[in-house]
Amino acid sequence: MKFTLKNFLRYYWFSLLILIAIFGVSFYLYPMLPSKIPTHWNLYGEVDGWSSKGFGVWFLPFFTLGLFLLFIVIPFIDPRRENYEKFFGVYVLFINGFLLFMGVMQVAILFAGLGYKVPIGELVPVGIGFIFALIGLTMGKIKSNYFFGIRTPWTLESPTVWEKTHKASGKFFIASGIIMALAAFLPPMVELLMFILLPLFTTVAVMVYSYQLYEQEKKNKS
């Protein structure tokens, strides 16, 4: 994959718009904010952590920018970089979904700082559920690489195991994402339980499945 300004703008124009919006809104609202703003909420959606205006406003935008730059670099440093061309569209789609989520979180922090009651207890789980579902939707199109997808020893060893594991695991991620989003409207302790068990179950399930596929493939070859 050749890096040129034309290719960069072609693939990442929407990502850049999201980043510009995040920084633009932050610059615009910065003078209106008090010296301290809420930056952490407990399980019940109550503010339990505050930060200085400078840190609270700019940490998330610059953290998001840093991750975006990392996402750009990854396809060029992965030993299997040639495979990114086969799924680059869904790779960029994931990046844009992630940036949108971070943008929503930044706006929530800014509005909370302005004194608005922000439903952070619902926004966060719905947003994380959205990310899980988005990963699930793109999973079946991801080709073998070392940074993105289900990277177990067995998927990395066998292209067939990689493909079958990702096609099947996409359904797990979509279902988990939907359940996590709906859990936002359940009692807080139930929501917490869902957020612990669902990712754990999904991770274990896809690892076991990839191992079983690999062992089956070995038997078929012997």
TrEMBL record:
Annotated GO biological process: response to toxic substance
Residue ranges occupied by any DUF1648 domain in the UniProt entry: 17-64
Matches recorded under InterPro entries: DUF1648 (IPR012867), SdpI (IPR026272), SdpI/YhfL (IPR025962)
Record-annotated membrane-spanning stretches: 12-30, 55-76, 88-111, 123-142, 168-186, 192-214
Pfam families xrefs: DUF1648, SdpI
Keywords associated with the record: Membrane, Transmembrane, Transmembrane helix
Highest taxon in the source lineage: Bacteria
Stored PANTHER family: IMMUNITY PROTEIN SDPI
Name of this protein: Putative membrane protein
Origin species: Carboxydothermus hydrogenoformans (strain ATCC BAA-161 / DSM 6008 / Z-2901)
Lineage, highest ranks first: Bacteria, Bacillati, Bacillota, Clostridia, Thermoanaerobacterales
